[in-house]
Design a protein that fits this description.
mainly beta; 5-stranded mixed β-sheet; 6% helix
C-alpha cells in the first residue's frame, strides 16, 4: 500500500493544457505558481489523500530555464541549511481529503497557489494528514508511507511546469 500511496500522489503531476488568463499582478522579484491535482487510470474505487501543506524548494541563484541537474547526495531535510540560494517556501493550500479518482478526463482541482521567489523550482514537499486510504472492492484500507513519514518529495523538472507567462507557472 505504501507504493500505491506514493504512486497516487505522483499521478497528479500529469501534463494537461488549460486556457487561463491571469489578472493577478505579480510582485517584482517573484513568480506565481499554481499546483493542480489530476489522476491517472487505476482499478481502485477511491484513492483518498489527506493533503495538509505544500512547500516549494527554489534555487534563487538559478532560473526556470536552467538545465535540470540533480546533485548527488541531495538531502531535502538538510541541504537548504548549507546553501544561501536554496529556500523552502510555503504556498497557500486548500487543505483536505481529496479523492484522486474524481479527477478524471481532464477534471482537475486547484490545490495550492501563491507567489514564490524567482528562481528554479526544484522540489515540492507535500505534507499529508492521517486520513489517507484506498478503497478496493468496497473495502477501505489505510495508506501509510514508509517509516511512518507524513510527507512526500517530488522532484520538479522544466517539462513539469506549464508556463502561462514569463512569471506565471502551473504544475499538474
Amino acid at each position: 500500500l505504501t507504493i500505491v500511496a506514493t504512486a497516487a500522489l505522483l499521478l497528479f503531476f500529469a501534463a494537461c493544457q488549460k486556457d487561463v488568463s491571469s489578472s493577478d499582478t505579480i510582485p517584482a522579484g517573484q513568480s506565481k505558481l499554481s499546483v493542480y491535482l489530476v489522476d491517472g487510470p487505476t482499478d481502485y474505487q477511491k484513492v483518498l489523500v489527506d493533503i495538509r501543506a505544500i512547500e516549494i524548494k527554489i534555487d534563487t541563484c538559478r532560473r526556470h530555464g536552467d538545465d535540470d541537474h540533480d546533485g548527488p547526495g541531495c538531502d531535502d531535510d538538510h541541504d537548504s541549511l548549507s546553501s544561501r540560494c536554496e529556500v523552502w517556501q510555503s504556498i497557500n493550500i486548500n487543505p483536505g481529503v481529496y479523492d484522486l479518482l474524481t479527477l478524471r478526463n481532464g477534471v482537475d482541482t486547484l490545490l495550492a497557489s501563491g507567489f514564490i521567489f524567482n528562481g528554479k523550482i526544484e522540489r515540492i514537499k507535500i505534507t499529508l494528514g492521517t486520513n489517507n486510504s484506498v478503497v478496493v472492492d468496497s473495502v477501505s484500507h489505510p495508506l501509510r508511507l514508509q517509516n511512518n513519514q507524513n510527507f512526500v518529495y517530488v522532484n520538479i523538472h522544466r517539462e513539469h511546469l506549464d508556463s502561462i507567462s514569463n512569471s506565471n507557472f502551473r504544475l499538474f
